[in-house]
From TrEMBL:
Belongs to the transcriptional regulatory Rex family. This is Redox-sensing transcriptional repressor Rex. Modulates transcription in response to changes in cellular NADH/NAD(+) redox state. Residues 16-55 bind DNA. One of its GO terms (cellular component) is cytoplasm. It comes from Heliobacterium modesticaldum (strain ATCC 51547 / Ice1). It is found in: Cytoplasm. Its main location: cytoplasm. The lineage of its organism: Bacteria, Bacillati, Bacillota, Clostridia, Eubacteriales.
Amino acid sequence: MKFFKVPEPTIMRLSLYSRILEQLEERGVPIISSVELGDAVGINSGVVRKDLSMFGEFGVRGVGYNVRELRDNIRKLLGQDRNWPVIIVGAGHLGSSLAAYPGFRQRGFDVVALVDTDPEKIGSTIIDKTVVSWEEAERLVKAQGIRMAILAVPADAVQAVAQQLTDLGIEAILNFSPIILKGPSKAQVQNVDLTVYFDLMRFTQNLNDNGLRPQASHTRGIAVR
């Protein structure tokens, strides 16, 4: 396998390809072309071929891609063929909602526990996850080799908590807190701010309300489980 820097948009599209291919596999579809896969994602077929060619030779010219084979290869590329233990830091409304999200387990992420500093929450159970202290979290990280964490703490605590996580050995942080996290140098950080997408929709609606026609995007939304 080739090792090189892969653009983030390519990795995000691989995730979309994976979900589409899973749906096709469930429906018993054996073959899909780059045009059909591109249409499903809302991109040009040339982008699909370029993305996949970065990782090897897939498919047969004039025939298409074997759905199951391509799905399995992308799953391996994304590490979806094994489970990844994760902790959620923050057992408030947001953290509790994230713990209840079934998509994490479906995509191979196993939420081991929630972490909080509130004595009244520590020891309680949210869904089927136990809320633990930082001391217990440190033990879990070491015992289970946890390398990923989800942040759902108040904005004023984000930076300090991120540093605590990297000190425990966490290498990747998904930040749902309402602030852009500048992650510690040793950690990969992804900031998730849903209000950005609401602003995108609001911007388009605002143009419509003012009699302007927004330019059509080169991509479109796609319904996925």
